[in-house]
Amino acid sequence: MEFFYCYAYGxxxxxxxxxxxxxxxxxxxxxxxxxxxxxxxxKLVDEGYDDGYTGxxxxxxxxxxxxxxxxxxxxxxxxxxxxxxxGREYIEAGRxxxxxxxxxxxxxxxxxxxxxxxxxxxxxxxMLPFKNLINDSYCRDTSIKIRSHFDVKRRNGEFIGSFxxxxxxxDPENKNxxxxxxxxxxxxxxIFSRLIAGQSCQGISDDLNALGVLSPMEYKRSKxxxxxxxxxxxxxAKWSAVGVRRILENEVYLGVMxxxxxxxxxxxxxxxxxxxxxxxxxxxxxxxxxxxREDFQLAARLLRTDTRKAPGARAVYPLSGLVYCGDCKxxxxxxTSSYDGKTYAYYVCAAHRADKTVCAPHSISESKLExxxxxxxxxHIRTVAALSKALEAIGRRPLQKVAAERMDRQLDALRRELVxxxxxxxxxxxxYAASEVSQEDFYEFKRIFTRDCEEVExxxxxxxxxxxxxxxxxxxxxxxxxxxxxxxxxxxxxxxxLVRLVERVLIYEDARVEIVFRYQEQFAQAMTVxxxxxxxxxxxxxx
Length: 543
Fold this sequence. Notes:
alpha/beta; Rossmann fold; Hect, E3 ligase catalytic domain fold; 4 domains; 5-stranded mixed beta sheet; 3-stranded mixed beta sheet; extended
């Protein structure tokens, strides 16, 4: 009697829909053990069961152990519950069963399919490819359904990832919804505050490591999550500049859900590829925001600027990344020079420094520049406060009247043009009905006049939006006015305050300094309206 030394193998995957009780790991093991017990020529040498692995992927731990046992000759028989437990990719499964195992003299048994290579007949040989093909088709159909199901969830703004972004946790009552994790959210807010205060991404990561703040990976692991990351470089994952920047650029902290950034070509190819941004599924207001839109946009602007700091410095200089040449519009760089035992700092045009023929130096002392910026900023804040009072004194009603009159004057011509084109379009149909215009000419003229009408309607809508923006900008309690008034008068230049108020500082060759403040457009609109109201009032008083 020939004896067979057996390896019992099984598999269960949540992804391929194998959730019935009959396919559980326990039932697979019991079935195989019972089969071996009924055959005295068989002896169980080893067994392995891959729990949670799809049948299309043969990179499974126990599957590899089984193959190794086969190659070294430790077993000469492989037993599975059925062919689908072995694998669902028909070409690869067939390669093992019909080529590799016979070449190594290994018997293969699929119990429920009645397939045994020791007792093959023509029917059994013909059955194997069809069985594998059916299993492969099942896996393909299941994959399509799962992908479609996930896409629907993504479009609805439901979270479908395994782990929530750092700063959030899955809602215990709804795993597809994110809720704020207070402890981690405080770290996220601290990271944004540090950047705005002048620290670089590398400086932030160094400080977080020095303070013993757990990195996102270690934090998740401390909460009992089996979380792994490809960015782990030490025994214990540390904060890095890349990790900090990834947090600063993630819109999830605005309450925005962005999913579907990566995918696999199909159910057989597991290589992850990036999707074009236009194919991402982006849904706003799906969960509570941790960072305000104001701070997020500010952080994005700071990440785009040159904020290099001197060696050993903890933070960048107050004006770093904000000073530009007024002529070539390129950046100004901070330089130092020593004279008579003293060190002097100044800003100079970077283009001129690289090539003396490109631009003038525009050199200016750092101390003088900072004083000029401080005085100008305080003056602007006082001006905004005075403007707010002026707008409040003028009142909304006169302002609305003036704005409405202005809009009517601008829109009258557009409205007349729209009515004219609509009349022409309507008369065109009447002429077509009277056979005065051919069908070809009718559709061509209709297309032209319909397009023209749409363009005029869009122009009217744009004018209305402009009016709405004007009303918002000129309101005494407008958010941008409150924004500036909040800071009051500054005693010194602080990086955080400066980046919140100033867009850029322009230096001209005659040492003239021009400061472009944030909300410059709204400020100009409000000043124009206020000046017009004052002028109108003066004229009335003169009469």
